[in-house]
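Supplementary Methods. Inverse-folding protocol.

Structures were first reduced to a discrete structure-token string of length 198. This string, shown here, constituted the complete conditioning input.
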């Protein structure tokens, strides 16, 4: 890796630089320290591991389409745009596999090294490189549904026998399987009976 120190003069280059082999690390060399300059970046990177939550996530190695605009501002480089990720998981109701794509918005300011900032968690440009992986991670995890559904009106599973009700909409049980419910059903019928007759 070759590094130009032209634009980081007077600042300490941190010992650990973003790994430029990662598809999410972008060189900001052309923009460095020239406020007002911008460039469009479109690229496809491979999804990192562990991107997601228990029920749904982005398969490791699947393509992530990044469509970004890098803009040089006084404090650093502002990155805005979108990332399109593949999602894989299971429906919370019927447990069927879900495969879909999700577009997430990306907006992050990467500050120049040594630049004062109020935000202690602000990301930094290191050696003219910015690493979008943590940005993507935050954006994707925020978008993920805690109860992913195969479709909004998923009918789920039969509570009595576990059959997938999407595949068998007419599904039903004539007699309650559990005899303990039989008594209860009788009670409801008794209560509603006089009402019906009136
Ligand atoms: Zn479902
Ligand atoms: Zn059933």
């Amino acid at each position: 890796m070759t590094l130009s120190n032209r634009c980081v003069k007077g600042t300490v280059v941190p010992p650990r630089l973003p790994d430029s082999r990662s598809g999410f690390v972008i060189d900001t060399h052309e923009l460095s320290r020239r406020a007002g300059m911008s460039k469009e970046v479109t690229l496809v990177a491979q999804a990192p591991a562990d991107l997601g939550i228990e029920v749904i996530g982005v398969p490791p190695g699947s393509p992530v389409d990044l469509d970004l605009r890098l803009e040089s501002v006084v404090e650093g480089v502002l990155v805005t745009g979108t990332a399109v990720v593949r999602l894989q998981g299971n429906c919370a109701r019927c447990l069927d596999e879900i495969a879909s794509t999700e577009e997430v918005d990306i907006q992050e300011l990467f500050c120049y090294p040594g630049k004062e900032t109020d935000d202690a968690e602000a990301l930094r440009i290191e050696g003219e490189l910015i690493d979008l992986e943590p940005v993507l991670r935050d954006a994707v995890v925020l978008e993920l549904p805690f109860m992913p559904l195969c479709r909004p009106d998923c009918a789920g599973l039969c509570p009595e026998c576990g059959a997938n009700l999407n595949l068998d909409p007419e599904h039903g049980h004539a007699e309650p399987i559990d005899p303990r419910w039989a008594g209860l059903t009788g009670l409801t019928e008794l209560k509603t009976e006089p009402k019906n007759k009136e």
